[in-house]
Amino acid sequence: MTGVPTVLDERFRAAAAASGELDVAYDVLDDTPVGRLLVGISDRGLCRVSFDPSPEAELERLARSFGPRVLRAPKAIDRVRRELDEYFTGSRQAFDLELDLRATPEFHRRVLEELNRVEYGHTTTYGTLAAQVGAPRAARAVGTVMNRNPIPIVLPCHRVVGASGSLTGYGGGLDRKEWLLRLEGALL
User: What's the chain's Rg over C-alpha atoms?
Assistant: First the structure.
């Protein structure tokens, strides 16, 4: 018995994504300068970017957070792919994507919204972010939020450094953090 023809499979996935019947459409980008990324979007916007994804674990996480109808639908994430490509080539400094943070706890959401104000080519500290969300003694909690950021790169947790300016902690690894900061000209 043979599988579904590729053209038919692609049509099915595109139609499912376009119908609004999916909870999350996703794809795995194998060819980015920072390695493999899993990218997921819901009907509300970008909901996940994961480094070195274990597809099974990520799909389970997406289903728990957004609903069980999760399907690989590459065409559905074309805009995200294009904006990431533009960012990686240095031709985009700000993302113009709707974000879906509904599965994120309130404190995390406040921190991520403040993080999103850190401009391209600039850095901030965990303590500064904590103060900006009204929790000046919560630098470690802000570090936890950065580590659990569901949409790294787009929500630029790589722009957060230690109080001394040192590169500390990054869910994608310090080598990626350094690469992203060099891309933006924030590190010489």
Answer: 17
pLDDT of residue 117: 97
> Which CATH number fits the domain that encloses residue 148?
1.10.10.10
169 versus 92: which is more confidently predicted? 92
Phi-psi region of 185 (alpha: psi -120 to 50; beta: other; left: phi over 0): left
pLDDT of residue 31: 92
- The pairing of beta strand 124-125 with beta strand 160-161: parallel
In DSSP terms, which residues pair with 46 in a beta bridge? 41, 99
97 part of a folded domain: no
How crowded is the C-beta side of 170, counted as CA atoms within 13 Å? 25
Instruction: Evaluate if residue 164 carries a pLDDT over 90.
Output: no
The reply to whether 95 falls in a domain is no
Give yes or no: residues 83 and 14 share one domain: yes
Which residue in 59, 157, 180, 183 is the catalytic one?
157
47 is catalytic: no
Q: Could you tell me the two tokens for 177?
A: 């953090």
Q: pTM (2 decimals)? A: 0.89
Domain assignment present for 96: no
Full domain range(s) for residue 37:
6-88
